[in-house]
Prior knowledge:
Arc Repressor Mutant, subunit A, mainly alpha, 11 helices
Amino acid sequence: MEEKSDKTELARGRPRGLTVEARRQQIIAAAFEAFVELGFAKTTTAIVAAKAKVSKRTIYEVFADKITLFAAVVAECQPLILDLPRPEGESLEPLDSLVAIFRLNISDDEERVREAVLNLIARESVQFPELSDYLYENKIIRSREALIDWLHSTPAFGELSTDDAKTYAGMLMDIVFGALLPRRRLKGTSHRQPRNESIKQRLAIFLRGVL
């Protein structure tokens, strides 16, 4: 009976016609929903499996443990946080480049996802330092490093020293992410648009000071 039950669960967890990558994306989407709603500690593979409509065995065939699943969620959302590297040969004014890099013109739906994942990372990294360690050690999060590389490769910033590039990258991230992690929940475009315009103004001030 146990063997039959396992086979039934496995069959239920592997819908016919679903590719490995599609199943992986299905699990990541369910895990994102669970982590945002319940937090890292209260999210279990059973909950994710139920939301993804797969078996727990299927999850463990794709992800080694809950930390690697959390990392996959963060990696999937990374393009909404920082759009680097930029397309080869792209020629934009510095302010336009920063607006594109920090995704300040994304849709309201994308904004909500970004806010959710930024708050998730900030909250869970404080409660579980091992998550933060894993994300950085495995280069899941390397926003600062990517921004430093971009500054070094952008003619507008001239020949920056390594220390200057690090300082500029830190300042830019403080300007943008300090505003994107509000103390109160924003409600719709009417709140997000003025915030984003304010960030653009601050970036313009930054550029006037360094260029």
